[in-house]
């Protein structure tokens, strides 16, 4: 089973590398970073491993609630651990990579069912998991002011063709024209 899992992980990483057009050097760097923080095995990262990674990245503003929220959002298969590909997506958000790559990663994270479109329920989950602890990014004074109505309004702005689904093109257009707030919820590094 262990070799099968390793093979499956390599396939996931290769798909991600191809999709994001990462160089071999970038792939090796991100995989090595993942392995460095996997305490008990080389296949998945626990929440405690992830917390250690955040400490190494000097992300001292992350409290326990935010660590849990980010971990839950990144754990797209909901197995309680981060696979290499789940971790690599987040790591790329934190370091220098083209904004288009980061937009694609955040789109994929929000699109939990991998349908190629984001539905209202998916963007609500993303915001409820993350934005409540970062309400200032959407203009609310505190998390209690971030309502489903606020999220519905944002979704309507992104859904330019009003078909109740946001495709990758609409998402990228919104990120480019309306600012990177959707990316910043995961602390994506955005150069000015």
TrEMBL record:
<dbReference type="InterPro" id="IPR018247">
    <property type="entry name" value="EF_Hand_1_Ca_BS"/>
</dbReference>
<dbReference type="InterPro" id="IPR002048">
    <property type="entry name" value="EF_hand_dom"/>
</dbReference>
<keyword id="KW-0449">Lipoprotein</keyword>
<feature type="domain" description="EF-hand">
    <location>
        <begin position="62"/>
        <end position="97"/>
    </location>
</feature>
<dbReference type="GO" id="GO:0005509">
    <property type="term" value="F:calcium ion binding"/>
</dbReference>
<dbReference type="InterPro" id="IPR011992">
    <property type="entry name" value="EF-hand-dom_pair"/>
</dbReference>
<keyword id="KW-0106">Calcium</keyword>
<dbReference type="Pfam" id="PF13499">
    <property type="entry name" value="EF-hand_7"/>
</dbReference>
<keyword id="KW-0519">Myristate</keyword>
<comment type="similarity">
    <text>Belongs to the recoverin family.</text>
</comment>
<feature type="domain" description="EF-hand">
    <location>
        <begin position="98"/>
        <end position="133"/>
    </location>
</feature>
<dbReference type="Pfam" id="PF13833">
    <property type="entry name" value="EF-hand_8"/>
</dbReference>
<feature type="domain" description="EF-hand">
    <location>
        <begin position="146"/>
        <end position="181"/>
    </location>
</feature>
<protein>
    <recommendedName>
        <fullName>EF-hand domain-containing protein</fullName>
    </recommendedName>
</protein>
<keyword id="KW-0479">Metal-binding</keyword>
<dbReference type="InterPro" id="IPR028846">
    <property type="entry name" value="Recoverin"/>
</dbReference>
<keyword id="KW-0677">Repeat</keyword>
């Amino acid at each position: 089973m262990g070799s099968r899992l390793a093979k499956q992980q390599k396939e996931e990483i290769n798909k991600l590398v191809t999709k994001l057009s990462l160089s071999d050097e970038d792939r090796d760097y991100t995989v090595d970073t993942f392995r460095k923080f996997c305490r008990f095995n080389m296949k998945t990262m626990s929440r405690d491993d992830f917390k250690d990674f955040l400490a190494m990245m000097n992300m001292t503003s992350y409290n326990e609630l935010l660590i849990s929220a980010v971990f839950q959002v990144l754990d797209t298969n909901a197995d309680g651990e981060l696979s290499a590909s789940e971790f690599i997506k987040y790591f790329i958000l934190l370091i220098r990579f083209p904004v288009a790559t980061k937009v694609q990663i955040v789109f994929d994270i929000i699109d939990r069912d991998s349908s190629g479109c984001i539905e209202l329920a998916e963007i609500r989950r993303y915001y409820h998991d993350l934005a409540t602890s970062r309400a200032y990014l959407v203009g609310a004074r505190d998390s209690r002011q971030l309502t489903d109505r606020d999220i519905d309004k944002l979704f309507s702005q992104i859904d330019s063709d009003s078909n109740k689904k946001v495709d990758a093109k609409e998402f990228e257009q919104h990120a480019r024209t309306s600012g990177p707030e959707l990316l910043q919820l995961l602390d994506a590094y955005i150069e000015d």
